[in-house]
Amino acid sequence: MSDVVDVVVIGAGLSGLQAALDVHEAGRSVTILEARDRVGGKTRSEVRPDGKGIQEIGAAWINDTNQSHIWDYCKRFGLTAVVQDIQGSVASEDAEGNCHFFPYGELPRFAQSEVDSIQAIRDQFEAASLDPETFKQPKRGELDRITLEQWCRNAGATDLALKTAAVWCRGTLGQDPCEVSALAFLEIARGALGIVNLRHDGKHGAQHLRLQEGTQSIAIGMAKLLPPGTIKLSSPVSSLVRVSSKLCLVRTANGQQIKARKVILSIPGPSYKNIAFDPPLPPRKFIYTTAVRFGCYVKYICLFKTPFWRDLGACGLAQSFRGPLNHCRDTSVDALGNYALTCFLASEPGRRWFALSEDDRREAIVKQLGALFSVGYEKVQSELLGTITTEWMQDKWAGWGCPFPAPPPSTIGAGEDGDWLWEKAGNIYFVGTELTNEWRGYMEGALRSGKRGSRQVLADLLLDASSL
């Protein structure tokens, strides 16, 4: 069958590119079909209007110690790491709008009883996420039947501790703790080496480094390692037919038809709805892809003349129980005069903010930043050069959301440690940053998932050949 490619990969994000590279390096033929007119998936780096460097519309943070795959590419492509600023104070706003600063690495200056409750919930969550027994039956099933909010209540959380957990959950998923399986969030924390490391911006933490050239440059570099013509852009897949146990027919919306021995699906769960599967996906996979969902998650990047927040000893990190922003981080690159705060609008406060007019959105954020950093509205307004807003919720190829989807209760608790989530369906295989136990939701997780998928495919190709 000379007209049959060994592997078709659907999606040119990091997991799809990694899988394709592994297949190519193993001497197998591979074609990538990508719906967009670019590679990178949810890595998307946008040049500032004034040309002073880039800001990240999508995935932004890495580290150089426990994220070995992504860091290897950074070194290979000669990319410039920017250390996330944690020198100074964090700004905090309570539900009534009262603001204060506290040192990075400590807890907000609430009443001691509340601080103790927050610390107790954090420590219990840390212990549970790092305990292997948490993810085995019957505990696994029990945790999947309750929400993260119920888990916190069962652990004795006070109202303020629940609000703190909401900041974690909103900041990670754009969803509230009452919407997400407790098991799912514990798995996310486990994959990042604990809830503390998941939220940490220092060495070894999930938000330690950014890239001056932009994270999309990794995907662009990976694409260049593949033979010319491997990647077909603007080629959304419309249907996927399993002709037999050893042959698939992939059709695109623009009329292409490709026969493949194996297909690797590297797109977010909610965007499976864009493809007609014949035969349908297995029942458990179908239930997962219809139940898993994105929350409301918007980046609103404010570009400034100077890093004015540093004048008060602030590092640019802020969190709010009130909204509209859930948290923000300094995403400046000082060497380029690229000064910015990236504000994250999430969940219900984010939805209310997103419904406002463009001018009212800006007003709301400027006022809140002025209060958070104790400089006032006029100061922030005078420093503001412009804004960039992400629009992932309008992107069907992203699954209408960002950064990665999470399941509600009673979706993923079956089996042992969730391996069924990436079980193959005949000669179709599933990868993506949501389908990994390590660094789920991060670029590192995407690469690891891509490598896992390619190993499955290559092993089965050898089995197929030996059975002829």
From TrEMBL:
Substrate binds at residue 344. It catalyses: a secondary aliphatic amine + O2 + H2O = a primary amine + an aldehyde + H2O2. It is an enzyme of class 1 (oxidoreductase). FAD binds at residues 15, 34-35, 237, 434. InterPro entries: Amino_oxidase, FAD/NAD-bd_sf, Flavin_amine_oxidase, Flavin_MAO. Residues 14-458 form the Amine oxidase domain. Keywords: FAD, Flavoprotein, Oxidoreductase. This is Amine oxidase. It comes from Capronia epimyces CBS 606.96.
